[in-house]
Write a structure and sequence with these properties.
The chain is an alpha+beta fold. 50% of the residues lie in helices and 21% in strands. The chain has a single domain, classed as 2-Layer Sandwich (Pantoate--beta-alanine Ligase, Chain: A,domain 2), CATH 3.30.1300. Strand 1 and strand 2 form a beta hairpin.
C-alpha cells in the first residue's frame, strides 16, 4: 500500500527537478543572448538596432519552442540595454507569456 504513494511522490519530485532545470536553462540562455547582443550593439560603429537584430535572431533560433519572444533595445547614458521578454516555462515549454524578463547591459564604445 505504501509503495504506490512513495513511487508517485518520487516521480513527482523527479519531474519537478527536471522542470526546474529547464527553467534555469531557458533563463540562463536568454540572459546570455541579452548580454552578448548588448556587447554586439555596443561595439564601435554599431548601434542598439544591431544588438536588437542579433538578439531577435538568436532568441528565435535557440528558443523557438517559447513562441513569441519580445526584444527591446535602449541606449541611455552611454549604456546599451537589451531587454528580452519570453514565456515562463512552467509545464514543459508552456506557461504565461512575457512573464520571464532578462536584461543585458554593455558600455557603448562610441561614448568613450
Amino acid at each position: 500500500m505504501e509503495f504506490p504513494l512513495i513511487a508517485a511522490l518520487v516521480v513527482a519530485l523527479g519531474l519537478s527537478l527536471l522542470q526546474l532545470a529547464l527553467f534555469l536553462h531557458v533563463r540562463n540562455g536568454l540572459t546570455d543572448i541579452a548580454v552578448q547582443s548588448a556587447y554586439h550593439g555596443a561595439l564601435l560603429g554599431n548601434d542598439p538596432s544591431d544588438g536588437l537584430a542579433r538578439a531577435s535572431e538568436l532568441a528565435s533560433a535557440r528558443f523557438q519552442q517559447l513562441g513569441d519572444v519580445d526584444v527591446e533595445a535602449r541606449e541611455h547614458a552611454g549604456v546599451i540595454e537589451i531587454e528580452i521578454h519570453a514565456a515562463l516555462p512552467l509545464i514543459g515549454f508552456f506557461g504565461p507569456s512575457n512573464a520571464l524578463h532578462v536584461v543585458g547591459h554593455a558600455v557603448d564604445e562610441d561614448a568613450l
